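Throughout this chapter, every protein is written as a compact record of paired, labelled lines. An example of such a record is reproduced below:
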Amino acid sequence: MSEERAGAGPRRRPDVRQRRERTLQRVTAFTDAGVAIALTLLVLPLVDFADASTARQSVAQLFAEHLGDVLSFAVSFLVIALFWRTHRHLYEQLVDYDERLLILNTMWLMAVVFLPFPTARLFVETRLRTDSAVLYLSKMLVISLLALAQAWWVARRPELRAASSPGTPRALMPPIALSVTFAVATLVAFTSPTAGLLVLVCLPLAQLLAVRITRPPSD
């Protein structure tokens, strides 16, 4: 009996590890599905204006009339794709998880899925309003801060990530770059909604600089 009990312990550990690995995979798959749904919802306002009443218009006329809507969709799509890219890079480092990380991830996903609402609000306006632009940009700021919170938590918990993952300062740079960009855009939007949205043009540059900083030095 004692030998059987002694052998049960080593067998139990791989089982627990495998279950946690499967749960981590499920969390990642669930998050990816939520992001995919949010991306899909962004296009629905575009579908609404392509109804029977526009049948006599050419495609060029239709796009010219709703250029702002198309640009809002494109920007929101690319921004969510950037959020997903940062999230994917973080979770590729993980070998384990804890409940606080799952809570932060759930809050992040809720904020991403809610983003089509402020995006649709921008779509229906004939004149850009300050409150709508601030709502849109502040929602993106919340998403980026929740991404930063996840990266910070993983950086504090070395047991959650692979030994080959980048160090703490480098791992935090991409979400910091996004958060700073959205914070600046939100503040600018209080003065000029259009200028606040134009700040988003700096996102690719901010992300590029962050990636270069996080890249490990060559030998």
